[in-house]
Design brief:
Length: 67
């Protein structure tokens, strides 16, 4: 496992990651509480991801066909 992290060197990497994660979760809840976030249910998220993957795959196929 790679022990290199983009975090400062003063703390243990696990603590740095945990602090970063707590900040991200707090920011997400703050955004949700302020009304600036939009909840997307599982079915819609799954559908959106399928569409994105299909678009990426078709772009990759098109770029390979040009080579």
């Amino acid at each position: 496992m790679n022990n290199k992290t983009p975090f400062c060197l003063g703390e243990e990497p696990e603590l740095q990651m945990q602090d970063w994660l707590v900040e991200q979760v707090n920011a997400a809840f703050k955004k949700l509480d302020s009304g600036k976030a939009k909840f997307i249910n599982h079915e819609l998220a799954t559908s959106d991801m399928k569409e994105r993957k299909a678009r990426i795959r078709s772009d990759e196929y098109a770029s390979k066909a040009r080579l």
